[in-house]
Structures are given as C-alpha cells and as structure tokens.
Design goal:
mainly alpha
Length: 210
Amino acid sequence: MENTLLFIIEVLGTLAFAVSGVRLAARKRFDWFGAYTIGVVTAIGGGTIRDLLLGAPVFWMSSWMYLAVTGLAFIIVVMFKRVLTSASKSLFMFDAVGLALFVLTGIHKSLDYGYPMWVAVIMGMITGAFGGVSRDVLINEEPLFFRKDIYATACIAGGFVYWGAMLAGTSQMVQQALCTVTILGLRWGALRYGWHLPEMKERDTPTTQS
C-alpha cells in the first residue's frame, strides 16, 4: 500500500513538472521534440541526481512509465496550449505541485535507504528543485533556485515540517499533508505577497571628493 501511494505521488509529480517544462518550452517556441525533451529533463532531473547520490538505481530507467507520463504532459500542453501559455499562474500551479510531490518522494526514498532525516531533507530539496534548475538552464532562464524567490527554501521548510511531524508521532499521511501544505503555502505567499529572502548586495564604495 505504501509503495503504491509513493508510486502515485511520483507519477503525479512527474506529470506536473513535465507540464511546467513543456509549457515553458512552448512559450519559447521550441519544436515538438525540443519541448518534449525539456519536459523529460524537468520531470526526471532532480530524481536522477538524488538516486546517483543515494547509490540507488535511477528511477526512470526501471520503467517506461515516466517517459509516457511526460508524453501525456506534452499532449495536454498541445491541446490546451492557449490557456496554459497565456495564464502566468498556470506555471506556478504545476511547478508548485510538482515541487511538493517530489520533495515527498525524495524524503521517503532516502529514509528507505537507511539515511538519517537530515539527509532526507536535503534529498527532498534536490529531488524537488533540481529538475526546475535543469529546465531553466536549458531554456536560457535564470533558475528559480538562485533567485530571491522562496523556492528551494520552501522545499527545506517542508522537509523540516515533515521531520517535526514524524518526531511528534503523527501518521505518515499527516506528515505528507503538512509537508505539502507548507511548500504550497510558501510558494503561494512568494507569488502573492512577494515573500523572499534578503539579497546579497555589495557594500557601496564611498566616493572621494576632491
């Protein structure tokens, strides 16, 4: 039952991230092959890095399902291109959902492989954020990961909420729900209210007057 639930979460996360990748590629006027490739990279990038770091078999190499799900995402964007590419909030919706779901899979897989919770939090962040980093680099956009927007920070916050709920003895479903709500809430707040981390700025050099 637990493995089935995690598989469903991973498939839904793959679909959400793939849609966000194909959607951005469509806005950049990529051809169909290029758009599908961006969708694949967005969907599997973070999980691939996670599995390599954990010493686990790379997840998408064990089943054609993930490539097929990306194909479904491609069809969705082609069918509803006008709606998805014109609505600026549609990217946020798919990206935020994919982010939250992939953080969950990263945490669970790390714990299944016997790693401590602090490692699971980091792997959750990598799983959630690095597919988007790969997408943004390939389409020549500044990655969200490196902007002042709350993005990777939302992943880490969700991981710590999961950890706290685990220590409190709550059920796994409650842990997953609280982690998801935290990530979605922080991403929504960043979009709606402009929440962000302080920027790194160079100190102004005083000018000398003659």
